[in-house]
Amino acid sequence: AHSYTKYNTWDTVQSWIASISSSNPNLISKQVIGSTYEGRPMTVLKLGKKSSSTKPAIFMDCGIHAREWISPAFCQWFVKEALSTYGSDSQMTSLLDQMDVFVLPVFNIDGYDYTHKSNRMWRKTRSRKSGSSCIGADPNRNWNAGWCTTGASSNPCSDTFCGYSPESEIEVKNVADFIRRNKSVLKAYLTIHSYSQLLLFPYSYTFELAAHHSELLKVAEGASAALRSLYGTSYTSGPGAATIYPAAGGSDDWAYDLGVKYSYTFELRDTGRYGFLLPESQIKPTCEETMLAVKYIAAYVQKNL
Ligand code: 0X9
Ligand code: ZN
Ligand code: ZN
Known about the structure:
By secondary structure, this protein is of the alpha/beta class.
């Protein structure tokens, strides 16, 4: 059965997607944006009060990397909190009145399923190509942003394999197409990973500073302070290349260069004690504190529409 304080399997997440969207038709709708390599449907949830005019929007994805289980747990938590606090929390109400939030609960579904059934530490997609016996590419090295120039591998057996070409991974292509299609309304792109407690923004493919560096840093520092206010969890903010490592082909850099200014990568708890194997007892506190950071960014974006 589905639980917000457990790591749900893909099958459980899939039925949750169906039931949560049918039980809240006034605030949520769903659309399939394509299928994964192994044929599973990729469903984007759209949260927001229905409006006659087109609303500005935020896009958030979870689970780009298969083993980072706290990430899909956060997207599920976010959807629950949005629905249950709309009408009582003034910020959430105003956010969903003025904007839409698109949520992709699990990006790399095939990989996520594989981590539940075969190899808990799997990171990549599960695509195959004749000529190599190694499976999958890193879906955060496969975007067309300095593709495969640094911090990525052209060896199909590597965990950071950039793929055979930009968007060679169907999951990346499906999301990139969705973002391109909705480019005119998208004001922010948030992508949720783990672990390290970082709030990163462009660039990671170069050490050059983004055109909006100081604003992106200011918002990241405000979001990190909001997060820390709940349980004292400390986050470091900065551009990816200098803060974690240079790595090209990431979704945040791609979205930013497309024109989505507020582009952030979260690296959730912890800093390495449990790493990817974060205990289920930490799902609730991690999600509650992360909500504060996401809501801080959303409020800033909303104020600056
Ligand atoms: O390496 C990554 O893709 C991310 N770290 S993780 O441990 N979750 O794999 C960081 C991504 C930062 N952004 C880019 N490299 N574009
Ligand atoms: Zn990751
Ligand atoms: Zn709550």
